[in-house]
Amino acid sequence: MAAAEHPDMFIDRLRPLYADVPGLEARVGRHLPVLLPLLSQVYGQRADFAAQCALLAGRMAACLSARPAELRALDTAREANPDWFCDSRMLGYSTYVDRFAGDLLGLIGRVPYLQDLGITYLHLLPFWRVRPGDSDGGFAVSDYGSVDPRLGSIDDLDRLTARLRAAGISLCADLVLNHTADDHPWALAAKSGDPAARDFYHIFADRAEADAYEAHLLQVFPQTAPGNFTHVPEAGGWVWTTFYPFQWDLNYANPAVFVAMAGVMMDLANRGAEVFRLDSAAFLWKRLGTICRSEPETHLILRAYRAIMAIVAPALLLKSEVIAPVADAARYLGTEAAPECHLAYHAGLMTAGWAALAEQSAALPRAVLAAAPPPPHGACWITYVRCHDDIGWQPLAPQAGGDPQPRLKRIADFYTDGRSYARGEAFQAGGGDDAHGLNGTAASLVGLETALTPEEFDAALARLRLLYGLAFAAGGLPVINMGDEQVLLNDWSYAADPARAGEGRWLHRPVFAERPGANTGLGALAALRRSLPPAAPETAPCLFESGADPVLAFSRGASLFLFNFAGRSQHVTVPPDGWHDLLSDAAWAGVVAPYGMAWLVNALQDG
Ligand code: GLC
User: Fold this and answer.
1) Of 24, 55, 64, 124, nearest to 267 (Cα)?
2) Catalytic one among 75, 136, 295, 321?
3) Is 279 a catalytic residue?
4) Does position 392 have pLDDT exceeding 80, yes or no?
5) Is the four-CA dihedral 294, 300, 301, 306 of positive or negative sign?
6) Residue 606: its pLDDT value, please?
7) Fewest C-beta in 10 Å: which of 13, 108, 165, 196?
8) Distance (Å) of CA 167 to CA 163, 275, 323, 369, 392
């Protein structure tokens, strides 16, 4: 029995709520016909399909009944203004709870700081209870319903979401979708032999089966966690572990997994999260003979989650964490007819900015922007400079030439070989020509750690502002990585701490500190962004020829932007006179300073 043919299973559960929940009937009418065919396409062949649909319908009804009044009001407001998050007033901040503020209550104390910076969106890295010992920075979750006791309690989380909402800051919670910790109750039950729990994961008694997959897979952590399978004697076989051995990949071919994670999402939405960062979203579906990334079913599953959330918590946004070339990452935004996530990381543009500094050429950002499809209506990019992970160069592979690896390797080495201004460390180098990943804070990578003279200091600061300027100007929702606004340098102490020494990414996860005098002006830059002539959210940057290779030039709406990735001034032939530079508050004179930029508006329109 396919649910697509039996919408009544859902309608019967949801109809009794129509009177209570404003707009619900219309939502069901719109999104159920999307959801049901997706579910039957992915799971229709399973014997337990109807039973799982019934379970899902029940959970959706329970979520709707329990949704607090203020979140229902938010649903109504956001439905009336579905593009709200693409507005130029939006500015994000991303951080670990403990590194920024100690714990959740400490974070409440930092809300005024975020407000001063103009933040309206706060991405918190995972704050759930994790396994003892290494937890990959919180990405090995043992319980999606209880907070890591070191960070606080579930009540603290409720206090925080209420405080953030009152401050006009939307909480983006990390949702570790692809895997659980090896001590999650599902994993424990699987180890104890429970067949239903074993079907939550990919466990192969026979190594040959694992090998058949392994032959086509890539490796995420080739040095610290080689291979994609871990032998777990209690589980009686080889467990699929794409990341660390203690992170067990969930089996999304099992509808019970899909429904269980939908339940996690619904509970968290009712606690006031407004955005989910769908961690490792590309890895959900496994298919023999492929690299098991971005398989078609992964997209269908994400669309199904979107349809569910559109019914039960329409204020909620989905963000895909897919670090891939721009054309692949864009697919996670879906299309107007088949929307998927609301937000996706513009990893290509982020990486291209760093590459451009190394190459003193704007060729790669130009190529990435040229290859970036405009987001469909109601979706936008996350633009950023750094995050808690390493910078991987593979998102640039399609734009970096016929054999991209030597070029990417040169770029990667620029930041790690100690011969430039940058102080970064290689991450998970695979050897050969493969470009290694890069660790380091933005401040250390732009040269603030090595700057000795005021000129070197100014040049480093200019590079940091340049990269953030690009993230702010490219459209989308820009996110500041915690500490970049204070130009926090690398935390080299990680190497002496046994708990962190094995994981190089701790280099760029310093403890927050205010550094008086370290004025990056990111808050002021964000304020300037808000004053730009409004452009429709889906307006993509439109490249134009600047006449100088190091200068990236594009228009967006009625504004023109120029970014000079070279350490020498550049004369630019276009645009001619008649423009006003908002950054220098002076008439445009045709020259972009070393590592400088110009944000131009038509002088006649500028008051
Ligand atoms: C994502 C996270 C990263 C983590 C990995 C496994 O890529 O950003 O920090 O190691 O997923 O959960």
Assistant:
1) 64
2) 321
3) yes
4) yes
5) positive
6) 46
7) 196
8) 6, 16, 31, 34, 35
Asked if the model's pLDDT at residue 258 lies above 80, the reply is: yes
Question: Ligand 1 within 6 A of 134 CB?
Answer: no
- The residue whose CB lies within 8 Å of the most ligand 1 atoms, and thus the one to mutate among 127, 141, 174, 243, is 243
Give the integer Cα–Cα distance in Å for 355 and 523: 25
Q: What ligand 1 atom has the least distance to the C-alpha of 136? A: 10
Per-residue pLDDT at 5: 55
In whole angstroms, what is the distance from residue 283 CA to residue 62 CA? 29
Copy the structure tokens of residue 228.
């994609």
Residue 222 has pLDDT above 60, yes or no: yes
Probe ligand 1: pick from 123, 228, 293, 389, max atoms within 8 Å of CB? 389
pLDDT tens-digit profile of 25-53? 999 999 999 999 999 999 999 999 999 99
How far apart, in whole angstroms, are the C-alpha atoms of residue 147 and residue 196?
26
Q: Looking at domain 542-606, does it have CATH number 3.20.20.140?
A: no
Q: Give yes or no for residue 607 having a pLDDT over 50.
A: no
- 241 CA to centre of ligand 1 in angstroms: 13
Q: 138: CA distance to ligand 1 center in Å?
A: 9
Distance in angstroms (rounded) separating the CA atoms of residues 437 and 428: 6
Q: What is the average per-residue pLDDT within 468-474?
A: 98
Query: Could you state, in order of their start, the residue ranges of all structural domains in the chain?
Result: 542-606
Among 148, 182, 183, 279, the active-site one is: 279
Please report the sign of the dihedral spanned by the C-alpha atoms of residue 512, residue 517, residue 518, residue 520: positive
180 CA from centroid of ligand 1 (Å): 12
Nearest to 247 by CA among 147, 321, 145, 138: 138
448-478 burial code (b ≥16 CB/10 A, e <16):
bbebeeeeeeebbbbbbbbbbbbbbbbbbbb
pLDDT (average), residues 155-164: 98
Q: Mean pLDDT of all residues in the chain? A: 95
Question: Can you tell me the distance from the alpha carbon of 87 to that of 76, in angstroms, rounded to the nearest whole number?
Answer: 18
- Residue 75 is a catalytic residue: no
d(CA 116, CA 500): 32
Span 130-158, average pLDDT: 97
Q: What is the mean pLDDT of residues 109-123?
A: 97
pLDDT at 605: 60
Amino acid at the residue 401: G
Closest by alpha carbon to 53, among 286, 304, 303?
A: 304
Q: 279 alpha carbon to ligand 1 midpoint, in Å?
A: 7
| CB within 8 Å of 536: residues ≥ 6 apart | 557
